[in-house]
Write a structure and sequence with these properties.
With about 375 residues, the chain is an alpha+beta fold. The chain folds into two domains: about 1-90, Jelly Rolls (Sandwich); about 130-380, Hypothetical protein af1432 (Orthogonal Bundle), CATH 1.10.3210. It is built from 19 helices and seven strands. It has helices at about 1-5, 85-90, 105-115, 130-140, 145-150, 155-165, 170, 180-185, 190-200, 210-235, 240-250, 255-260, 265-270, 270-295, 300-305, 320-335, 350, 360-370, 370-380, and strands at about 10-15, 15-20, 25-35, 35-40, 45-50, 65-70, 75-80. It has a four-stranded antiparallel β-sheet, with no helix packed on it. A three-stranded antiparallel β-sheet has the order 1-7-3. α9 (about 190-200) runs parallel beside α11 (about 240-250) and α14 packs antiparallel against α15. It is globular.
């Protein structure tokens, strides 16, 4: 498709070496021929040739990305509006029940939705210990012992963090014997991801008998997505398993405040299909607000916001939202849910990941072979 569009747009042949494209939101850059290295800051995030599936997607032309052409390469500058043609090709469908203006269920749905949009609900608070640990990790004056002492204030948290750190997905065959060693070996950001992943579990607990089954089901699904996300992140250059784990756990976090708010509307709890539709429609935005409220970065907030935006085009560089999109589809396979979902190889995210270079059957086989490792991570989270 790019080649046919390129016939009507200007392409450029550029020499090997550093390249600084003109960045304008109205335009997108593509690699038509050659090879390019994509850096985020000083980190190499992708090495792309024109023959790879990911080359069908635009280069991430924004700060802090920079580029180096490995060989003489041909690039294409394309009006962003042309990408609407590609979006139409995917034909994304909506799901859920149909609502009609004169329907009693529709009245209930829109009344509750308007209340939520006015902010008539409470965002969950991050536990105090998590806030303290986050501050310590961000403070350059703290040392590993300071961080370890904070985590050790909660013995159960300490035990869970150590089990995850020493699992096959993170230890690399070399176990650690203390939290101080874990921080030193994995680094502060990796430890932050693992600690927060352990703390998030408490948010899925409730004393409400009405919500208990829903939240337990949501937690089980989130654990499966997190386990697969951690594995996919490990396979993907530039991404790390710990952040993939956290992204998978919080992708549906917006459902929690919505379900708690629904407790105050008995007639909504009596109509589970309407509640399901409302949660599905609003959990993305509420999830984004929740994670920003917790001072999580924008990348994780976007994961919660767009976790079911299956046909998101993105860029040629895979990110954690791509990981979570693919992980969800893999998780849904084993959950027996009757949902209208795309095939894994039908979504753009699949073609950006390392697995996208294989056939769908071979990619799923790789994940199936790693089932024991996925099950281990799930077990550590429960």
């Amino acid at each position: 498709m790019l080649e046919s569009i390129a016939e009507h747009c200007a392409s450029r042949r550029l020499p090997a070496g550093p390249w600084e494209p003109e960045c304008d939101p109205a335009w997108r850059w593509f690699l038509l021929d050659g090879e390019v290295e994509v850096y985020r800051g000083d980190q190499l995030r992708a090495r792309l040739t024109h023959e790879e599936p990911a080359a069908a997607f635009p280069l991430p032309c924004s700060e802090p990305y920079r580029f180096r052409l490995v060989t003489s390469s041909r690039v294409l500058r394309l009006p962003a509006r042309y990408l609407e043609l590609a979006k139409a090709r995917w034909g994304e469908k909506t799901s859920g029940i149909e609502l009609h203006e004169d329907d009693e269920e529709a009245t209930l749905y829109f009344r509750f939705r308007e209340e939520l949009q006015r902010g008539d609900f409470e965002l969950p608070a991050m536990p105090d210990l998590a806030v303290d640990i986050g501050r310590a990790l961000d403070d350059p004056r703290t040392v590993n012992d300071d961080i370890a002492r904070l985590v050790q204030l909660d013995p159960a948290l300490t035990a869970r963090v150590m089990r995850i750190v020493n699992s096959a997905a993170f230890a690399g065959g070399i176990p650690v014997s203390s939290l101080q060693q874990a921080v030193g070996r994995l680094g502060r950001q990796q430890v932050r991801n693992i600690v927060f992943s352990c703390i998030v579990k408490g948010l899925f607990h409730t004393s409400s008998s009405v919500l208990k089954a829903r939240l337990e089901k949501l937690w089980k699904h989130s654990c499966k997505v997190a386990a697969v996300s951690a594995l996919l992140a490990r396979f993907t250059p530039g991404l790390d398993a710990g952040r993939g784990l956290l992204a998978g756990l919080v992708h549906d976090i917006g459902a929690i405040p919505l379900l708690h708010a629904a407790q105050n509307v008995p007639e909504l709890l009596e109509r589970p299909a309407v509640l399901d539709r409302l949660v599905a429609d609003m959990k993305g935005e509420v999830g984004r607000l929740t994670l920003l409220h917790w001072h999580f970065d924008g990348e994780l907030a976007r994961v919660a916001q767009d976790a079911e935006h299956w046909y998101r085009l993105g860029s040629c560089v895979p990110d954690y939202l791509d990981i979570v999109l693919v992980a969800q589809l893999h998780a849904f396979v084993g959950e027996g849910l009757h949902l209208e979902l795309p095939r894994i190889d039908a979504i753009p995210a699949f073609h950006r990941l390392a697995l996208g270079r294989l056939s769908p059957r071979a990619s799923i086989a790789i994940l199936d072979e790693a089932a024991r490792e996925i099950a281990e991570i799930e077990g550590l989270l429960h």
